[in-house]
Amino acid sequence: MTAERLPPMPSRRLALLLPLVLPACGSRDPEIAVPGGPIGFRFLLPIRLNVAEVVVQEAEPPPAPGDFGATLAVPPARAVRQMAQERVFAVGSSGQAVFAVTQATVLRDATGVVCALGCRLDIVGAEGGRQGFIEAAARANITLPSGAAAATRQRAGEAMLRQALDRLNVEFEFQAKRNLRAWLVETAPGAGGMSAPAPGAVEREALPPA
Predict the structure, then answer these.
(1) Is the CB of residue 168 less than 8 Å from the CB of residue 119?
(2) How many whole angstroms separate alpha carbon 100 and alpha carbon 58?
(3) Sign, Cα dihedral of 66, 33, 71, 101
(4) What percent of the chain is predicted at pLDDT more than 70?
(5) Beta strand pairing status for 53-56 and 47-49?
(6) CATH number for position 83
(7) Residue 195's CB: how many other CB atoms inside 10 A?
(8) Does some domain include residue 24?
(9) What is the pLDDT of residues 110-146, one digit of tens each?
């Protein structure tokens, strides 16, 4: 008695099995949109404080392992300081508002890229004592394929910085309006008792009638 020979597996069946493992090798990097134009906050209403001076400290928090924020077009700590410089203005006669960056990282992690930003503003009286403060923090992250190209990660870092910065700006203004009401000034007093825009504010000019 002879053993029955099994027919050979059709080549088409083998071909159907191959695509199950191909996507892991041929995955495409996602398209990441980075907002155009420079980072800026001068188009927003200024935050006027009843202090004589706003001090934006240059000190930066130490970088964390995997942090590549220094390679971005605008490093994250500089971007956070720019937010303070373009939004917070002194319109009083005494005291200081001291702004500091508490966190500014853009990290590669196991799943992609994450940006974490934080800041603090202290109101210091003329005698040197702290009279009030606010803190704000924000994060933004994106998931990337494990084999994403370096250029893709770089664009992801730029995009996440913009997102986290927008969120930090919103949170910072919210905290200021909530916890620094006693130091907020609606208008800056000008000559003759007239109100004048604070430095950096956008002035509007009425158009002549048609």
Answers:
(1) yes
(2) 8
(3) negative
(4) 75
(5) unpaired
(6) 3.30.160
(7) 11
(8) no
(9) 899 999 999 999 999 988 899 999 999 999 999 999 8
